[in-house]
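Model: Ready when you are.
Researcher: Fold this.
Model:
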Amino acid sequence: MINLVEGLCYRLKLEKLDKIAFLNNLTSRFGIRPSSIALAIISFITFNILMENGIRWLASAVGFLYPAYLTAKVARSKNDENEEEGKFWIKYWLVYGLVYITEIFFMRFLSMIPYYYIIKIAFFLWLYYPETQGASIVYEKTVKAFFTAYEPKIDAKLAPIQRFDSTEFLKNTIKNITINTMQAIRA
């Protein structure tokens, strides 16, 4: 183990720290070389960076990959027995989207919560675990209530978009570009 530490200190050129008198005086009472302390600090920081990114990836995998796989299985099934399961996964993805949007706006604050990603993993597991089906609970208490209250207003705002005729828009755009081009050529 000592040879490994010394070898790493040499490869990272940390042995130069051993030549600084102040650091040697500071660490000599502990019997540890300054280069070894520097290696420990570098290792600690590296581990924390990898752990944070790793746990972030794991939270994304738990919240997205497994549910996406199960959703794809339901979508591919040909029998009507999976209709309830399909509705559940629609609820799950609505809640997942809300979590994602909330994170976009509040990530600065959420990242200050200790063990946030572990809490997030536990929350996702609770959302889709068959015994709890938390996504149905969250959907019923929040999403459904919101849409029930605001659906008429949302539909009124979306009506112009739903009536939008893309082919007519394209024809008018091409017509206007052609007229403008012809006017520019004549001028």
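Researcher: Now this one.
Model:
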Amino acid sequence: MRAPHLQSVLRVIGFIVLPFAGLFCLLCIAAGMLGASVMFGIAVLASIYLISGAPHLIRMADAFPKATSQYEGDQAFIQTGGVRWGRSFWFASGWASVPFAHLRVSQDALAVSVAALHKRHTFTVPRSAVRRLTWKRAPFSLGLQIEHNLAGCPPFLLFWVTNRDALVCGLRDFGYEMAMI
């Protein structure tokens, strides 16, 4: 079981939501708003489920594919993560979360592949087209932006990492340098 941390977070959320949902449910019943009281009643039940440890959600989380970082001998380094691509950060036309994207680092190129919604996209940026690798922070994640000058590839390509230290080592092992944040 890899989800004890997730289980603890879900329990805390349940404990936070329960008193508010219960109070609103009672207030709605007192005011005669049955539709709203049903909604808050559902929130009370959901809170109780979360407090109980959310066993079904935890089993689903355990069955979900795991994020990995691995070497393919001395040929490549591969990391599972997420990806966002398009014209810019704000006008990205595509995205996929962990674990639906992979970054493959090799001596010759960086390749980001994504498989989501029955579509597969692969963006391969040859080493000669890589201008700069920079770290980008978001509120809950860290990504590696691949800045390049390749015409057939989206101008904005951001790979959300699952293990920054492993990715830094993998990139350095194949001769890529990153701009630090």
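Researcher: Key takeaway?
Model: Helices lie at 4-31, 34-51, 55-63, 164-173.
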